[in-house]
Design goal:
It contains twelve helices and 13 strands. By secondary structure, it is of the alpha/beta class. The protein has two domains: about 170 residues, 3-Layer(aba) Sandwich (D-Maltodextrin-Binding Protein, domain 2), CATH 3.40.190; about 100 residues, D-Maltodextrin-Binding Protein, domain 2, CATH 3.40.190. It has a six-stranded mixed β-sheet with strand order 2-1-3-12-4-13.
Length: about 280
Amino acid sequence: MHFMSLFFFSIIWSGLILLSPGLITVAKGADNEVYFYNPESNVNNFTALKREFDRYLQSLGNYRFVPFNHIQFFEKHLQIDQTAKMHKNAVYLLSSWYYKNLILHYPLHAALIGTIKGKVTQKKILSAQQTISSLQLLQGTNITSAGNQDYTKNILIELMGEDKRKIVSTLQILSVPNDIDALIAVGFGLSHAALTTEYSRSIWASINPQLSQTLNTLAISKDLLLPVVAIPEKPTSGTLELLKVIERMEQEKKGLMLLQMLGLDGWKVIGKNEQLMLKQ
């Protein structure tokens, strides 16, 4: 019963997020800002995320955290910033998947990458009820995911292959705040499949091994990079100082707590291998 209540709460909260007019209002007056957009994020409370990040950042300088939960509002804001030449004073915290698309239009450079237990990559897993034993049986069903619809469908096409694009087009994507809720939905028969990380799947197995055993693994992705912290190609000195603040987050208790809200436990300077993966 506890898991059912948790799932329905998640669905309701997710709906509120998706129906919200855009995001937390962008406040002015900070010397430098952190723009956050991650369509695969497990963040389920943007108001709390902004509040806690603002408190942390403002204790270290005249900084502000600006989270976006819809792509159209984020990209509209980027256009405004570019016109006003404000973008040089910003640091961008983005999903690696979205960063690859963004750099086709904006001159950004990835400086840091997130880590989980020392790793900078994760795999995505498509898990289904045992009654669904093949990808063909997914046609017309629903899938739970912590990512938004566009991101989820793009990853599903990568997982299933271009020849399964027609199947993906028939799927109904149910957005939930986090991976565990997505797996709970499948376990209780409230959705047919879930797209989650491999790490979340292992956590779910430890939380509820009995329900975990009812899942079939239909597809596993290649290694995917975790979120990145990007800066303009010609950053200001203030932007570089803010970048250092973000890089040191894991060294402080409050900073580590905020990283965990993002599903991470640290940052590392991007190396050549990660740079190559971001260009693929």
